[in-house]
Each structure stands twice: as C-alpha cells, then as structure tokens.
Design a protein that fits this description.
Two copies of one chain form a homodimer. By secondary structure, chain A is α+β, with helices and mostly antiparallel strands. Chain A has three domains: about 260 residues, 2-Layer Sandwich (BirA Bifunctional Protein, domain 2), CATH 3.30.930; about 100 residues, Rossmann fold (3-Layer(aba) Sandwich), CATH 3.40.50; about 70 residues, C-terminal domain of ProRS (Translation Initiation Factor IF3, 2-Layer Sandwich), CATH 3.30.110. Chain A is about 35% helix and about 25% strand. Chain A is built from 14 helices and 23 strands. In chain A, the strands form five sheets. In chain A, strands 3-7-8-14-11-10-9-22-23-21-20 form an eleven-stranded mixed beta sheet, sandwiched between helices. In chain A, a hairpin with a 6-residue loop joins strand 1 and strand 2. In chain A, helix 2 packs across helix 6. The longest helix of chain A is centred in the last third of the chain and has 26 residues. Chain A is globular, with a radius of gyration of 25 Å. Chain A starts with 13 loop residues before the first helix and ends with a strand. In chain A, about 50% of the residues are buried. Chains A and B meet through strand 2, helix 2, strand 3, strand 4 and strand 5 of A and strand 2, helix 2, strand 3, strand 4 and strand 5 of B.
Chain lengths: ~475, ~475
C-alpha cells in the first residue's frame, strides 16, 4: 500500500532512502528472526526473473541443476584449513534433532563446497566423467552481525556452481567463463555496469586458489561485490579425495571451480537505478513492464475506457509484454501513478475518454518523466522499442555515473581525500604487499575491489604503489564497499 | 553410467527394485548426512518440470511467490497447541550460531505456518488486503527415523501455499480449489490417477480444521499421500493475532489455508509407471522426451548418419520437443538403448545408413516396446502425437491397475484378507469412531486414506461400519500406505 509521505532523499540519507524504497515498493520486510528477511512477492518476482535468465545462461554453457543437503557434518568443514577458518565463525549449528542431542553437530551450509565435493568423490572415477558441471539454487546461512535487507542477511538465496575438471587450464577457463556470464547478466539484464578482475589474496574466497569478481559502483559511490567465481585448484579435491583415472591410466586429483550470485543482486539493482520517487527497475527484470491505468468519471466513460484498456492488455500480453491493468475502484489515478512509480514499473499507459476517442493512449516513462500521446495502432511494437531503449539508457547512465566517480592514477593524498570525501573507484598502482593493503584499509576503510582485467585497466599503467611508493606489481581498484 | 546387471524385479522385491531404479537412472543418491538425500541432475530435471507446471497453475489461480525465513523461533511453534504436538518431536534445532549459544533456540522449519502468519499479522489490516494468496518454494526438515529416497527424507523440497481470507466459505473454496489443482497436475502431468477426499481427524494436519488429500495407489498396492490441502480455520489467526477490519468496520480473525506437494511426487512417479527395465517417465515431465541414437560402422556412414541425426535434432527442438542426440563414441548402440531405457526416455529414434537412404528413422517406444520405421517427413508432428498418446495411455493403464486393486463393499473378513494379502484400496462403511480406526490400524496396518469425494464413492453406499457393524457415517477408503 502506498504511503503518502515522500521518501527520504538519497543525498539526505542514502541508507534511510534505501530502506524506504524497499518498504514502499514492498520488496522485503524484516522477520522476527534476527538478521533474516522476508522476500515479499514484489521482491521475489524480480528474483524469479533473475533466476530464469541466469538459469538459461548456465544451461546454455552446459551446466545442470541438482540439489545437495542443507546440513553439513561439522568435521567436513574442517578438512580444508583455510575454508574452516573463513567460515566456522559465522555458522549456525544444529545440535539437537528429533528430541536428542546429535553425536556430531550439523552446520547449516554457509556454502556447499565440502558436502558437494564429498559426493563428487563418489561419482567421479575416470576422465570420462569429466568435466562435471553442476549448479544448485539454494538457501545458505551466515551468521552476520550487521545485516541489511538484500545486501547482508543471515539467510540468503543464491546459486552456487560447482565443477570438476581434468586440468588446471580447463578449470581456469571455466572460472573465467562464469565470470563472463555474470558480467553479461549484470550488464544486459540488470543494466548494471561492472568491472571485472581478480581479488587479492586477502579478499579471496576461503579455500580458493584465485577469486575473480564483478564489482559495481552504487549511487553512494560505494562498491558492491555482485558475483564471484573461484578457481579452487586441487585444494578441495585433496581434502575430499576427489580423484580420477587420467586417459593415460594414472590417478590424479580433479580441479574444481565454484561461482555464485545471490539475492544481494536485488540490493545492487535498487542502489544502481532507483531515485527519490522509489524503485527504478530495468524492463527486462520488472514483474510488470507496463501498467495500464484507466481514467473515467461517469459510468458511460467507465465502460468504453475499460473496454479499451482490456483490449490493450490482451494485445500487450499476446506480444509477450508483462502487463498489468490497475482497475481498482475508489482510488484516484494520481494515487495509482504515485504507487506504480514507487514500485518501479518502467512504463505506464493512461487511458481516458479522450484517448479512447482519439484511438491513442498517454505513455509515461518511469525514467525521464516525459509523457506523450501515442497511437493505439502498433502500440505493442512501440512498447517493445521503448523498453529496449530504456534498458540501454539505464546501463549508459549508470556507466557514465560510475566513470564520473572514478579517479585514475591518484596520488596518496588524492586517494585519502577521495575516500574521506565523495568516494568512488580509485585506480592506482599497488606494490602487492598485504601489509600495505591492510594499512590502507585501516586508515581509509577502502579495500582493493579487484586487480582489474585488461579491458578496465588505465591506458597509462602506474609504475609505483600509490601508498608506499615501491614499484607497482599491478594496477588496483580501491573503494569503500558493502 | 549404465551397469550391465539386470534390476531386481518388482515381484521379487519391490523395495529393492525401487532403489535400483533410482540408482540406475541416477535420480538421487544417499548423502553423508543421516536421512538427507542428494537429488542428482536427472532427478532434479524432473523436479524442475514439475515446478514449472505447478508454478504456472498457482499463478493462473492468482497466487504469488515469496520467501520466508528457514528459521523459526522455538516459541512460535508452541503457540498453536496441536501444531507443536505434531511437529516438535521431529524438529532440528539450532542452538549455537556465530560461535555463541542462542538465547532462544531456532527450529529449522518443518512447515512455515507459524513464521508466515506472524508476518501476515503485520501485513493485513483491512478486508481490502484480502484475500492474500502466497506460495513459497522451499526446503523443509523433519527428523524422520526411517527414510527412503524421495518418499521420506529428513530434508525435502516442496512448495507451501499460505492464504488468508475474509470468510470461512472463501477459505474452504480455496482449500478445495488447490486440491483440484493437485489432482489435475497428478493426472495431466504425472499420468498418476488419484482419489480425492477428506482426512479423518486422526490423519489431518496438526492445527488444521480439515485436511483434504490426493491419494495414489502404487504398483505394490500401497497408497501414497501425494498432496494435501488444509482449511486451517481461524486456529493460526488466533495464535498469531492475524486480524482485519471487516467491510462493516468490526475486527475479525482471518481464515487461513495451506497446501503443499513435495519431491515425494518423484517417488510416486517412479512407483506408478516404472518397470523391470527401469524408469518410465511420462513425456510431459521427461528431461529428454526423445533421444536420437545414430548407428554406423564406417567413417563414410558416420558422416551421413550424423548429418541426418543433427538435422532431426534441430527440427525436433525447433518444434519444442526436448531432444538429445547421443553421439558418444566407443559405445555400442545396444548399450545406449539399455541406458536410455533405464533412464525412462519416452521415445528413441535410431538412425542407421539404411534409414538415411530411405529417409526414415526407427521409432522405439519406452512402453509397449514396439518398434516401427517412420518417415523423416513430418516426424516432429508424429512425435508430438506419439507423446500425447503415451501420456494418455500411461494414465489409463495406471487407472485400470488401481481399479483392479480396489475392492468395494468389503466385509471385515475380506478386508483383513486383502490387507494381509495383495493390498490395494478397500472401500467400506465407517462408523466414525477413532477407536475403531485405531484398532484397524493396529491389527491390519491399514489406515483410512480418505473419506472419498462424491465422484469416487461407491454406487451403493454402505450402511454399516465394516469393522464394528455400527451404522456407517461415511464411506472410507483404506489401504496400507507409505
């Protein structure tokens, strides 16, 4: 239900604005369980669109879905030393079941490498069983101290891909391929531009050889890690004895990858596009792409307007446009506009008696706020091209915003000023020393988001570390992050 | 990977046969966690087909999806007296999280009435907010002592619908509507005939006013409860204070329903249709509806046969037929046939050099086992009609099998003989006394599956209780059950 109070603005209080956008659009709600959210129908509908698109991309790249248990024996977690160190402190543990204390406590999965690779050990015998390319859609639990709707919740929904390969090169290619899938999804579906690259050792996944990520810059100039893809090397294969007979007859450990995105993406979507009127959702992911609002005063007008609106509804739906007719009685059109704007519907069609007479409708865009009269004839294809244009414009606007907030080749002083001031991405040289990285984090709260891939690197590569002045080993992108 | 050993037959050992069908088709596997299974890609693909079909039916009847937390505060479960009595003994309980003991333990949801209705109390204010029609796809946990793959596992996947209404009549209509959806899904998609009806008080859901179910008879003549729909009355609304302002301005409790089906359906699918060669899957739910097996000896044959096979693959896929081309090298066609039969693929097309020359293919059906040569021209529509015929034939065969195993108007002696002998459904009079019901269960292991709906009742209604001879209050259907 729309409330009449205006939202807190982004400039006034970004964090309050974020929560109010979610509440007003009824995307999610707090639950009685600490740190756990409820994803309401309007929010879940976006997740369903995301799932469908991603699932298709996973299947098109040869992956199959499966489902593994929620519970993991506590001892499994400990088999990979870095992994247990990274995850044990934030686990939820079942100690009682069926009225009895369990002999071995069960961890509610924070991620499923251990349980999945214990099964792969059983399923994989020979090089003929490779590659094994499996994905799972699941809920996971990480006991977080500070939680925020979608961005960091104790329980969240995600997908986790887990693959096994016969060579390091193949595993690396898979890791990079899935990073590319995430990038494509972020850009083409979410209209959210990302930079891709490798994480430093201090930011990589606990147990991975190398972690790659997509990072997006939010409107408050903080970065969001939106998806990760890990080359796990043979670390888990050794821990769970996942071996195979090579084509030459010898026995070797497999090479694994894992990769995931979560409901956190919805938080990223909100913070990339939304404005002080509420949610802005790219057409490709919107639950309703078009809402039709009929306008009438008399009963006679009502009949002809609703007839026209219903014809239009059928026509748009037949053309594959997700369209909703808001025929609620006893609610003024203006109140409906206000509500659908807050809910992020990309396009609105208003139809009154004059529109019916002129065989036209009034088209209002969620972004840009220009209204124009458009003929009924050929409206479905007009709507299609409007949506395509909006999808591209949102991506372009977000990319321009990010570039305006990016600084390349900063000095130490400029870096500090940025991090204490407007924020954003800073590209600069890095000596590669974890001590330098830790010092920067402590003094500026900024972390290295990625060592960017070639395409994102500055034309003029830095030669010295922005912080300590030692020779640079790689350009890095810093930001404060969610 | 196909093993060469023949399956145990159904008549030799139904339970062993069931497990072997699952293993051979790679549908599921045991996990290292007691009672939890892994749903392997071949099994999960069937679940995905089921989900898609059901989800469409739920949305077509006005429901939306959402997601509620996995964890439920232990105190919530206790608020509805019957509910806690029914579920508390089989819960898994998280007592430690983030390295600390929790002040209030969290139950891993065995079902979500309590957590969901606690949110509804927040969301529902007025009659305008009703009906609220929400479904969730989720995992749930019930600590079972004896588990069987798909049929009874500690963790399982399901959907649970939860609705709130302004009147008892509306809630009852919703309960019956969703039972109808389940019946339609079972019959039209799973080709699994069901009888519908009401559960007796001793078999109803803990906390419900009335429970309705669909029951299907498996090939071993035991019944499977395949889906339930509950009219919860105002029981949970009272416990969680879910009230609303009526259109007249007074305050009343809402009326709730809940309904669910689970991965148990896959067990039902297996035990309804499969045979001693392995899985039989109705075309509508098959991961692959058609598999193409190319046959060749020389390199020259290989080229032309694979060309024809690939053309056919494209043609069938373009027609919307889920088709797989099995072009594996170094494996004899016979071994492939054997494997795909065990995996339940409805139709197989074999293409050899002679077929290519004659512009035909050899069509083999999974059921009936007749092979015939069919022309390539128009093959897609031929395949479509073959699949429709198979879908109908499977339902018909299962219905005939069930009717042959059903006895109407049995005497007490006949009843005992049946339950100790061949099993099946027995229709007979029931006095309505829980004591009588309990005695029957203890002496024969048979339970009342449903008090059948009108359509399923015997033409001649019984007048006395089959067991005690007192006047009958309703005809009942008994069986031993899973």
């Amino acid at each position: 239900m729309a409330e009449s109070k205006a939202l807190t603005t982004r400039t006034a209080d970004f964090s309050a604005w974020y929560n109010e956008v979610i509440a007003r659009a009824e995307l999610a709600d707090y639950s009685p369980v600490r740190g756990c959210m409820v994803i309401r129908p309007n929010g879940y509908a976006i997740w369903e669109q995301m799932q469908q698109a991603l699932d298709r991309m996973f299947k098109d790249t040869g992956h199959q879905n499966a489902y593994f248990p929620l519970f993991i024996p506590q001892s499994f977690l400990s088999r990979e030393a870095e992994h247990v160190e990274g995850f044990a402190p934030e686990t939820a543990v079942v100690t009682i079941a069926g009225g009895k204390e369990l002999e071995e406590p069960l961890v509610v999965r924070p991620t499923s490498e251990t349980i999945i690779y214990s099964m792969y050990a059983k399923w994989i015998q020979s090089y003929r069983d490779l590659p094994l390319l499996i994905n799972q859609w699941a809920n996971v639990v990480r006991w977080e101290l500070r939680t925020r709707l979608f961005l960091r919740t104790t329980e969240f929904l995600w997908q986790e891909g887990h693959t096994a390969h016969a060579s390091e090169a193949e595993a690396e290619a898979e890791t990079r391929q899935m990073l590319g899938v995430y990038r494509r999804f972020a850009e083409e579906w979410m209209a959210m531009p990302v930079i891709t690259g490798r994480k430093t050792d201090s930011e990589k996944f606990a147990g991975a050889l190398r972690t790659y990520a997509i990072e997006a810059l939010m409107q408050d100039n903080k970065s969001l890690q939106a998806g990760t893809s890990h080359n796990l090397g043979q670390n888990f294969a050794r821990a769970f004895e996942v071996t195979y007979q090579t084509s030459e007859g010898s026995i070797d450990f497999v090479w694994n990858t894992s990769w995931g995105v979560s409901t956190r993406l919805i938080g990223g979507l909100i913070m990339t596009h939304s404005d002080d009127s509420g949610l802005v959702c790219p057409p490709k992911l919107a639950q309703w792409q078009v809402v039709i609002v009929p306008i009438f005063r008399t009963d006679e007008e009502r009949g002809s307007v609703l007839d026209a609106a219903e014809r239009l509804l059928r026509e748009l739906r037949a053309a594959g446009v997700r369209t909703h007719l808001d025929a609620r009685e006893g609610m003024k059109p203006g109140a409906k506009y206000y509500e659908w704007e807050a809910r992020g519907v990309p396009l609105r069609l208003e139809i009154g008696p004059r529109d019916v007479a002129a065989e036209s409708a009034m088209l209002a865009r969620r972004v840009g706020a220009r209204k124009e009269s458009v003929p009924m004839a050929g409206l479905a294809s007009r709507i299609q091209s409007e949506m395509e244009a909006m999808q591209i414009a949102l991506l372009e606007a977000a990319r321009e915003r990010r570039e305006r907030a990016s600084l390349r080749g900063a000095t130490r002083a400029e870096f500090i000023a940025r991090m204490e001031g407007e924020g954003g991405f800073v590209y600069a040289g890095f000596c590669g020393a974890p001590t330098c990285e830790a010092e920067i984090k402590e003094q500026t709260k900024a972390t290295i988001r990625v060592l960017p891939d070639e395409e994102f690197r500055s034309p003029k590569q830095p030669t010295t570390c922005m912080w300590c002045g030692a020779p640079s080993t790689a350009e890095a992108v810093w930001a404060r992050a969610y």
